[in-house]
């Protein structure tokens, strides 16, 4: 239990109190006393509204459950009318255009990958910020993007056969992104800059130039023998790195040692579903890392391959322009912070009645306060060239909740003496009530919105929970082909385009949750660009360096122009519920589904509850490592709860499955010295009990969220561990 300091009528955990007074406030120009007294006022005025919105969520869900029980014979028209009556489907909002100002180019104008990273992990967070630039050769060589066929194995020391395949791939990329006149980059033997243009000497002794000379953006070194040639395609930079003395450069006839790609244009520093932050200590770690990123002084020391590494933020990159001027490019990704949603309360601050305060409000204050350091330019780097602070708001249901976020942002701006609309909002479109009323939601934040993003993972969890009573859901892996999901994705783009997102805000697509399957990602994720997404989520810097290739292949602006000609309403399709009509699953198929879900739940939860790790790679039943976070947990736990509710499986069967899978997960983690096995004593394992709660209490969890149980059980595990010490 934390020690609390009384300040005014608030009780603040001392670790948070010290952090704010000693680290976050100094340098922001804000008066300490005023800050604390205004924080108290903020909580006292906004908490009741926050609670009322949560109560409304519960009321709506209860009504939906009761309606189905009373209307056994499901008729779509009646269902839709009922949803309108209870305010779940809001009246159609009038047309409008968003008017967000001061949006950085990475968000408004450029299209490219968005990396997500748990901000409590400084090493990963720094890596993510630095993933603005990534090596194409490393991304190809180190992943399955290049096949291991024909002697091109990855394991062991450098394999020149594999290296050759990488170089071939890279030259094909150059031919696509910066084609030469009538010849391939494969024929290049020397790159030079002559009179401000790229001149490429070819193997036959002739010289070729670029098809489009304006693609040359700069260079480094002697123009005759440059060490770097900076090119630009679809507004994205990339650099041919030349070094004939380098082990790889030596093998290349033009001396090319790598292609450096502008990759993660933006990064989401996540304080939400990929972190496990349950008390003041955890929250301070999250906030302190964000402070280090905003001041530019975050460092991480760790050992890797027997070397001690100190990681810091990368500097900007400098070049000479084709016409001889000095130019610089951002060395780091533009950072957003994802705060928590409206649901959770935090024990880091207690209100005058001793109640925990809304965590989403606390996050908004702290993230913005810390963001002010970067705005004032007191640190090493400035995150936003346009004076904005970027905040992602997840898990909102409907327009009243968006309006509440806007009100909170207004209040926080006033409190922190920031100009109106300094705080920008990215709205996660990941709850059914938001997808259906997206236009009305956007309208509530139309002066500050910078993205809508289809968080299809949470969205799938909400789909299952909302329609829990309607029937048994189709199998998890078939969800992505279902009508509701496809139309939700399309509708998000249509609504964004109609509201004027082009050149002002991102239309974002969801996460690639298979971090090791890069070949498959290269094949599939271009679908996000074809669908009109100006960005899409990737789980790692490597994935960012590969996904950016899609934005070189297609110009999203052109795609959007075509899509904009056929904008139409898709609400009826979004309302198509993914229940299995007369399911004919065999007992084996049912068991396989349960095994898969149970393994994912346990593999994730055990690290969350016992070790406080909020995002993990967990092998699925086919041994494919899946990125699991709280949203994927929501799906798996709700899916089992749904099948149990409809008698597809029994509680005993689920418990047996969980026990059997606990043994599998224990084995998978055998090499981790910090791991606590679950199967040695199921009753004593807090993690195992958490997994059981998530499933067996899944029906009654608010909107099927996993946070309340995870937080409760993590606090229990922490308390148990401190007694054991
Ligand atoms: C539904 C949603 O809300 S999705 C959003 C939440 N999800 C996320 O944020 C996903 C973030 N990704 C991750 O946390 C990780 O990639 C995981 C957990 C999936 C896999 O992690 P690991 O098993 O450690 O990955 P792996 O061993 O392959 O690679 C580790 C290396 O990649 C880097 N790395 C991996 N993921 C990231 C990331 N997201 N950002 C920055 N660096 C990363 C690490 O820094 C490390 O490199 P280093 O040794 O130089 O520091
Ligand atoms: O937050 C992302 C999601 O898919 O959920
Ligand atoms: Mg989500």
Question: What is this structure, in a nutshell?
Answer:
Helix content is about 45%, strand content about 20%.
How much helicity do the residues have?
Answer: 40-55%
CATH topology of the largest domain: TIM Barrel
- Strand arrangement, major sheet: 3-12-17-20-21-22-23-24
What small molecules does the structure contain?
acetyl coenzyme *A, the ligand O=CC(=O)O, magnesium ion
Distance between the termini: 15 Å
**Strand portion, in percent?**
15-25%
Low-pLDDT windows of residues: none
User: What structural category do the secondary elements indicate?
Assistant: alpha/beta
Main sheet makeup: 8 strands, parallel, barrel
CATH superfamily of the largest domain: Malate synthase, domain 3
**Total E-strand runs:** 26
- Tell me the overall shape: globular
Helical stretch tally: 24
Radius of gyration: 26 Å
- The total domain count is 3
How much is the average pLDDT? 97
CATH architecture of the largest domain: Alpha-Beta Barrel
CATH class of the largest domain: Alpha Beta
Modified residues (Cysteine sulfenic acid (-SOH)): 615
Domain Malate synthase TIM barrel: 335-567
Enzyme class: transferase
Binding site for acetyl-CoA: 116, 123-124, 274, 311, 539
How would you describe what is shown here?
The strands form seven sheets. The chain has an eight-stranded parallel barrel, surrounded by five helices. A five-stranded antiparallel sheet has the order 4-11-10-9-8. The protein has 24 helices and 26 strands. The chain folds into three domains: about 50-130 and about 265-575, Malate synthase, domain 3 (TIM Barrel), CATH 3.20.20; about 135-260, Malate synthase G - maily-beta sub-domain; about 585-725, Malate synthase, domain III (Malate Synthase G, Chain: A, Domain 4, Up-down Bundle). A hairpin with a 2-residue loop joins strand 5 (about 190-195) and strand 6 (about 195-200). The chain is of the alpha/beta class and about 725 residues long. The structure holds acetyl coenzyme *A, the ligand O=CC(=O)O and magnesium ion. Monomer. It catalyses: glyoxylate + acetyl-CoA + H2O = (S)-malate + CoA + H(+).
